[in-house]
Design brief:
4Fe4S_Fe-S-bd, Ion-translocating oxidoreductase complex subunit B, 4 iron, 4 sulfur cluster binding, membrane, electron transport, mainly alpha, Alpha-Beta Plaits, 6 helices
Length: 202
């Protein structure tokens, strides 16, 4: 134990700080376990169905707050980007009847497009984008990353030169909505080709 007495005051300070950090870390770890608030699973399921556009057209600052509001009894018809298909999915999840006629047309996927010849690099659209889908710097041309854009249109209004337009997403094998009737029975017909020899019946 004599070596402890030979330690310099600076070493004692470091040891004291380390012990305090260990004690406070243990207290925080214990508190996080004892005071942990379990998330509502229905909110997670609702949030998973929402388009995550974070556009605020529902009156809430994002999709997660709207999911919490729906779980607390708010209507399921406030999501404009989701449209009627989302209403039907939410109604099926919550076990309620889906309101009809709220959305006259099915939503068309769109992304923002910046006409760079009109862009003055004011960064207002960058500040308005909730998902950081616009890149650029002050007094430099801005560009939208289509794969990140959710089509919320929040960047359109702040633009002082009206250089941002919403363009329809061109369908591809990945983005096309392959609709089909689950009750539809597709008959399978076997066709014998000319090169295939006929089977001889015994």
């Amino acid at each position: 134990m004599s070596w402890l007495l030979s330690l310099s005051p600076y070493m004692w300070i470091l040891i004291s700080i380390a012990l305090l950090a260990l004690i406070f870390g243990a207290i925080l770890g214990f508190s996080s376990i004892k005071l942990k608030v379990e998330a509502d699973p229905i909110v997670d399921k609702i949030d998973a169905l929402l388009p995550q556009s974070q556009c605020g057209q529902c009156g809430y600052p994002g999709c997660r707050p709207y999911a919490e509001a729906i779980a607390n009894g708010d209507v399921i018809t406030k999501c404009v980007p989701g449209g009627q298909p989302l209403v039907e999915k939410l109604a099926d999840l919550l076990g309620v009847d889906a309101p009809q006629g709220v959305f006259e047309e099915e939503p068309v996927p769109k992304v923002a497009f910046i006409h760079e010849e009109m862009c003055i690099g004011c960064t207002k659209c960058i500040q308005a984008c909730p998902v950081d889908a616009i890149i650029g710097a002050n007094k430099a041309l801005h560009t939208v990353i289509p794969d990140l854009c959710t089509g919320c249109e929040l960047c359109v209004a702040p633009c002082p030169t009206d250089c941002i337009t919403m363009e329809k997403v061109k369908p591809s094998l990945d983005s096309w909505n392959w609709k089909y009737d689950q009750k539809l029975i597709i008959p399978v017909v076997q066709i014998q080709t000319q090169n295939e020899p006929e089977q001889v019946k015994s």
